[in-house]
Amino acid sequence: MESDPFYFPIMLNLRGRTCVVVGGGTVALRKVRTLIEGGARVRVIAPEIAPEIADSPGVETVRRSYRSGDLAGAFIAIAATGSRDVNEWVSKEAGQLRIPVNVVDEPELCSFIMPSVARRGRLVVSVSTSGAAPAFAGRIRREIEENLPPATAAFVELLGEIRELAEKRVTNPEKRAELMIGFCEKRHREAFEKDGIEAVRKAMISEIEKVI
Prior knowledge:
single chain, alpha/beta, Rossmann fold, 15% strand
């Protein structure tokens, strides 16, 4: 529908940034784990906090109900409580402070939504239905994961290494871009799985040397 929100896909660097999660149950736990994976400094505020959250390294816990001012200094906020009133309160204050906020299962209270994510090392594939059908986004994410070879993460690391080498040796940006696009072709991925990293690295370096 024309009135439905358009969500702009974006990747945020959370490393070292304070992210506040209001809520301490199972749903909050999933969000906390995702934030920890992103390197965030996580603060959890709730009267009752699950042991799995409290025992997570680097997580600050505040065992009380949410109060005005609890979002001060937050980079993002997540409301994962069972109380509509509290969720609305968090959403309103985040808006006033211009802090991006996600309210679990209540997209109308969100300024951002969290997609379903497939991850292989530094390769991150996010899937969203813009809040319409999160379960379907999860299904598509699982299908993507099933089709990503186990060696995908290592292949991405190799491409990063080769990209740095190409930037140093190939001065023509168009040639450099053409090389990197070619290195992403299926034949290189298949060779990586069949012949190993050293053989593919050698072949890619050889192609770089041809255009120097």
